[in-house]
Design goal:
Strand order of the largest sheet: 1-2-7-8-9
Order of helices and strands: HEEEEEEEEE
Structural class: mainly beta
Shape: flat
Largest sheet: 5 strands, antiparallel
Length: 123
């Protein structure tokens, strides 16, 4: 969508929108306004940077194991070439064990990274 009005279709680069903007996947609802992409209940349940026991992060590039190999989703500062979202447990074996990743091609990957889970990039 073109949320910033610059004429370019692009994916969100952040989960939470800048206050007063719709530049992320979630924004606080305004009476009669547009509902956020993640829905009206998402923000009320988020504590810190975790949601339902998982951390989430939007990625702006992909690695060598991905279909198509290494490349950035960014053209300039706009994420228009694709997206990926990764989720990992806040506390391994307590809030969850599996890590998940989805990308613009619709594939969802799931893997138990065991103790390496804590090495995933923090948001």
């Amino acid at each position: 969508m073109d949320r910033n009005g610059n004429g370019a279709l692009e994916y969100a680069q952040q989960i939470f929108s800048t206050p007063g903007k719709h530049d992320g996947l979630f924004w606080e609802g305004e009476e009669g306004g547009e509902i956020s992409s993640l829905g009206p209940l998402f923000g009320k349940d988020v504590v810190g940077d975790a949601w339902y026991g998982y951390h989430f992060r939007i990625l702006d590039d992909q690695g060598s194991s991905a279909s198509g190999g290494v490349y950035s989703y960014l053209i300039g500062n706009q994420m228009s070439r694709g997206f990926a979202l990764v989720a990992w447990p806040v506390k391994y074996n307590d809030s969850g064990v599996m890590c998940f990743m989805i990308s613009h091609d619709g594939q969802v990957f799931e893997k138990d990274l065991r103790p390496q889970t804590i090495r995933l990039p923090r948001p």
